[in-house]
Design brief:
about 0% strand; mainly alpha; about 80 residues; single chain
């Protein structure tokens, strides 16, 4: 176990009351209850971060005959006209 480190945190009143009640009910020190709750909460939060990688599925949009995606500037010029900008 890591060495004890003293720190100050501000808890909302409702959380403080819940932690004190849990410590009393479980007959454990307040600090132990807060540490267990924080570990469980952080584990839950960190587990939520592991998501599947984002994937896109290509869809054939169909390009009119005679047009090519090889040169986008040329394609825009053909579709929108040279003075479109």
């Amino acid at each position: 176990m890591m060495p004890f480190m003293r720190t100050t945190i501000n808890l909302d009143d409702d959380l403080l009351d819940q932690a004190r009640e849990s410590a009393r009910r479980m007959r454990k020190p307040f600090c132990a209850v807060v540490n267990e709750a924080l570990r469980a909460g952080l584990e839950h939060v960190n587990r939520g971060q592991a998501r599947r990688p984002y994937r896109t599925v290509p869809h054939h949009m169909g390009l009119r005959k005679g047009l090519s995606l090889d040169n986008i500037q040329e394609l825009l010029s053909q579709v929108e006209g040279d003075d479109a900008r």
